[in-house]
Write a structure and sequence with these properties.
single chain; about 350 residues; alpha+beta; Endonuclease III, domain 1; Nucleoside Triphosphate Pyrophosphohydrolase; 2 domains; 14 helices
């Protein structure tokens, strides 16, 4: 185990990625970066991380901010529950820990938005606590090194991987070690075909010797994404457009246009607007298709524009938003095509 850790740290000293959240013993910076990096590529996170810290430079400023401001700063990064949990967790740290993130991994795990992996990352990187941080990269690397050929997500296998991960973390450089495993999994020991010729651990790797590294880890087959058709209604009223702040779990707190699940004719769409939204609209036009892919579902959208009276009142749960105020609201990427249609219509 010591040989593996030493070889990996020596490689990390030569090949570590230059990332803006590294080189700091700052628990808040580590937390923000790890929250952003969940299910998101490093290249995407880079610009968001700097902007987010410029807006919320410390935990206290994040905790004191309105939720909508936090979601706006996160806009486009996706998985908005991460931002909401980060915000709630910051408030929890202020109320329970005087605004300072604890170093105890068990206490960290009780904070909103911090699971076992993030707790391990914060404790090891910010506080030099020798604990593992087990994510998908670590599962892949250790499955290959130790030749684990059972379902990596099955509880017994997962416990074995976590035990191995814990035994590999050195006492003197735990944060660097955990980041080294992340880098190895992201750049060398990648999904599919790893670059074993560049791997500092190939001499220790069971899968390399067996020639089946590309087949590991063993993971259950993902369920196919469900395709859901939607009609998205861009209802203009003078210089305003009808929107709703979502209360559903998916995209909670973000602003979207009226959406109607299914496919519809022009007649049925106008009937829906009249009966359900209590608006009398004209000039219904198709504005083309749009598509957005979530983790477990796909929104297959058809966009429609229509006009209501300039003095129209918004129905319950909706608001007419001035077009020049739209940019200040947190709007999901799923609505990007619809926003583009509005901008194009405004410029004509």
């Amino acid at each position: 185990m010591e040989q593996i850790s030493s070889a990996l740290l020596a490689w990390y000293d030569r090949c570590a990625r230059d990332l803006p959240w590294r080189g700091f013993h700052d628990a808040y910076r580590t937390w923000v970066s790890e929250a952003m990096l969940q299910q998101t590529r490093v290249e995407t996170v880079l610009s968001y991380y700097e902007r987010f810290l410029s807006r919320f430079p410390d935990l206290a400023s994040l905790a004191a901010a309105p939720e909508e401001d936090v979601l706006k700063a996160w806009e486009g990064l996706g998985y908005y529950s991460r931002a909401r949990n980060l915000w709630k967790g910051a408030q929890q740290v202020v109320s329970e820990y005087g605004g300072i993130l604890p170093c105890d991994p068990e206490k960290l795990r009780k904070i909103s938005g911090i699971g076992p992996y993030t707790a391990g990352a914060i404790a090891s990187i910010a506080y030099d606590i020798p604990v593992p941080a087990v994510d998908g990269n670590v599962i892949r690397v250790l499955s290959r090194i130790f030749g684990i050929r059972t379902d990596a997500l099955e509880p017994n296998t997962r416990r074995r991987i976590e035990s191995l991960a814990a035994s590999l973390v050195p006492a003197d450089r735990p944060g660097d070690y955990n980041q080294a495993v992340m880098d190895l999994g992201a750049t060398v020991c990648v999904p599919g075909t790893p670059d074993c010729s560049r791997c500092p651990l190939s001499a220790f790797c069971d899968a390399f010797r067996a020639g089946d590294a590309a087949d590991l880890p063993i993971l259950p087959k993902a369920k196919p994404q469900k395709v859901i058709p939607y009609a998205v209604l861009l209802i203009r009223s003078g210089g305003r457009v009808l929107m709703r702040q979502r209360t559903e779990t998916l995209l909670n707190g973000l602003w979207c246009f009226p959406m109607l699940e299914g496919t519809y004719s022009d007649v049925t769409l106008l009937q829906y607007v009249r009966k359900k939204l209590r608006l009398s609209c004209a000039d219904l036009r198709s504005a083309g298709p749009a598509r957005h892919v979530f983790t477990h579902r796909i929104w297959q959208m058809q966009l429609y524009t229509m006009s209501a009276e300039a003095s129209a009142s918004a129905p319950a749960e909706y608001e007419f938003i001035a077009l020049d105020q739209l940019a200040s609201l947190p709007v999901p990427v799923a609505m990007s095509a619809a926003v583009s249609v509005l901008k194009q219509g405004s410029s004509e």
